[in-house]
Amino acid sequence: MEIFFTVVAGAMTFVAGQLALKILIEPVHMMKNTISEISHDLILYANIYANPKAMGIDEHQDNAFKKFRILSSKLQANMALIPAYKWTCKLFGLPTIQNIKTGSSNLIGLSNGHDAALNNQGILNCYSAQKVKLALGIYIDKSELMDPDKERKFISAKEGPG
User: Fold this and answer.
1) How does the average pLDDT of the chain come out, rounded?
2) pTM of the model
3) Domain ranges of the chain
């Protein structure tokens, strides 16, 4: 009878481990992969979002801006998969719900940051990228930080070409 209980306890431990893996660990891993992908693409496409053009002119730019929208969606979707995110994020060192929203909305801002509607659209896109990095805990060297107080000056320069 002892062997039976040992086998049952072992099977229950295995099942509990698999449940924890599928319900908690894998979604957290997916979230961290998405944040890593965002970090990668913010560096990869920096030359594109810092120098925006009208849509349809540059296929690489169009793809980059589409990718930022997809990453924003993935970020939100990954958060929804993690149970009790409000507490789980603290346990696994993930961004808070508010920081996910901030990162996601600024990725959408990057996705929409084309056509040079503002004279300083490229600079404003760089501020959006910085906000994404800060919200998601992506490293930025202190020498590369843009002064957030100066962003207001760039926003106020609203007249674009034409």
Assistant:
1) 88
2) 0.85
3) 27-157
